[in-house]
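fyi for ur records
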Amino acid sequence: MDSNSTLNQLKAALPPGQMPSSYRVYFKSTLIALCHALEDHILKSTAQHPAQEPLVLVTFQEGKWYMQEADRYLSIAQNSAAVAIAACADSGFEQHPTGQLDNVSLIELSRDDSLANEWNLIIVAPGYTAMVLCHELSPEEYQADTQPRNDVERKFYGLWTFDRAAVEATATILIERMRPYNAALADRLTALQQQMSTSPDSIPIDLTSVVSRIVNYLQDSQEHLITASRQAQELWELEGHALRVNRNMTANKLQAFLRMAQRVDERDQDNPLASLQVAALAETLGQILDLPTIRLRRLRLAGLLFRIGLAEAPLEVFKQPASQLRESELVTWNNRAYLGGQLLGAMAELEPVRLIVSHQLENWDGSGRPDGLRGEAIPLESRILQLVAHFQELTQARGDRPALSLSDALNKCLQHSGTRFDPTLLEHLSTIVRLTEIGMMQLPERPSQLPKVWLEESLSPVN
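which gave:
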């Protein structure tokens, strides 16, 4: 990364150890989602509190500007005190209505300015501050086998924060980097920043809702890659599958499977909400990965049924960690995915769900069961289910093993990156845990939709 980058200048400006903890390498889709969520917050907060009109500083990479973003910034500018947009020539601003607004200033970056390689969003308002800073990895900074093959695989050094001190310092840095292009504009932006800082608003701004919209934007950010013909085909497929799934949900056999899975949870006194929590977190990861609706439904159902293979397991399986089980109990535990697949095989309509459950114990390095699948050969939904199930189990007590914190459970999972678990999925889970630990979101306790049978009260206690 260029030594003059805004990220490196911020690192030098802050006291040692004060760099935001979010500083790391991110996939492009995550950063797009963060930027969109923060931009959306401008519209929401200004509508509720007009005095919160912010100063917005934006830079776009050379050649990475899309005109749909220009339309988006038209609304953002109309709800901001001032917007300064830095981009190389031919970005499309000059001709777009956004560039014609009185409170929008355009800075035409020189292509040899390192700022042209950055993608930044800085928001300074009286009641809150926020920013996302990004700098794409150079080809030399990728590992030999991780060079991006398409747009969604691109990676960026990045950070995001709501800390006012860090945001204010970055705003100052970026304004000074704009000064050689327009000194008068830099003076106006500096004065406006100082005005925002010295006139804090007493109305509290709730930023926790921002993160809840991140997942929704991940799918939207990819729409420009889908052709009209593919959209039509996908809609046709979703419509047909949705009708079948809706019919299946009312089938007596499916209800029996769901009741069986629920009773497994009821037998597990230490972890009675396992299936609900696994289904919910698996669904969240699926949304982050932009899975189509039909695959999300299958993943959600597989999460609810992931322990059905333990329907006849002895109670000791639910009382001790796997390392302390006797041999006969360990056989049942190790074969739970295979047994679950066998049960679900009785219902042909659940074949996609059966495959997910059957392969949930396959390992990324090929050492898993039942088929020893390796890497991308393992169904994505099965990889998600395996990681989420292990993470959720670690957060609950089991025998003499205490429940781990979210961070400790994540670290345990990270120890198996590239061997047991898909490294990319671990990156996404790390982001979710980080957002949860700083109070910006809560881990979902239930999936977005539940079959009615799961909400019924048990008719009798289960021994």
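The first strand starts at residue 24 and ends at 27. thats all i got for now
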